[in-house]
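Example 3.2
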Amino acid sequence: MKTGVFLAKKKDGMIYYRSSLTYKNKHISLGSFPTEEQAHQTYNEATMLLNSSLTLEDVVHASLHLPFDKAVSLINFRDNGLYIGTPIYLRKNYFSYYLSENEELKFDIDDLFYYSSHRILRRQGHLYVNDYGMQVTLLSRYGIRNHSVCDRDYYFANGDNSDLRYSNVVLVNRYYGVSQYTRKAQTRYRVKIHINGNYTIGTYSTEVKAAIAYNKAVDLAKLYGIQKNFPTNYIEDLPASEYAEIYTKLKISTKYLDYLKAST
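Structure, written as tokens:
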């Protein structure tokens, strides 16, 4: 076998070739390949990267057998002394996660442990990780729900939607059915519910009251027999007694109530 190459067999007896190396006392697997030559060439490329001054930008323009995500891990190990299995490169006070040669996401260093053990995947344009058997979107880690709309419910402070550092992701509307707006220098919260069209529930002085008003509108819809799988709002750090008091006192649009009565 050529240097860095190991013969292996699949369960059906088919032969393939594994490539690996050891760097700074760390054994690193480079992948599996159909031919010995490809495995050896990948080993040579990985060895070259670890002993060169090539940057990630250089690798983007190089023609390598070595997968780009593995090249990121190797260069990060070389430059920063930490081997990470996912395509992460450590920067000063943050890190980059490379989805591809041309797609770089930025995260706070606080998220390093999470993304070093969770690979980012893409499905129908959405980025997510598999977490305990569930597909968890990246934006959900910021309290952004699946129904949220960028530049309405949240926005990126510097305009860069690949910069996912916490200071750059600004959450405006946290709750279902609630949208924030400003009128005469006052912030107000409008509540709408969707039942064969949008119905305005009311306008409220706080986000929490608005979220509870939406829940009350959902309860009323169910009470009048409307069969729909409505999402509801969970308000953290609010005692049940206080929630009940707000819920009872909140007024709901008479037009919405009239619609519900007419629907029965």
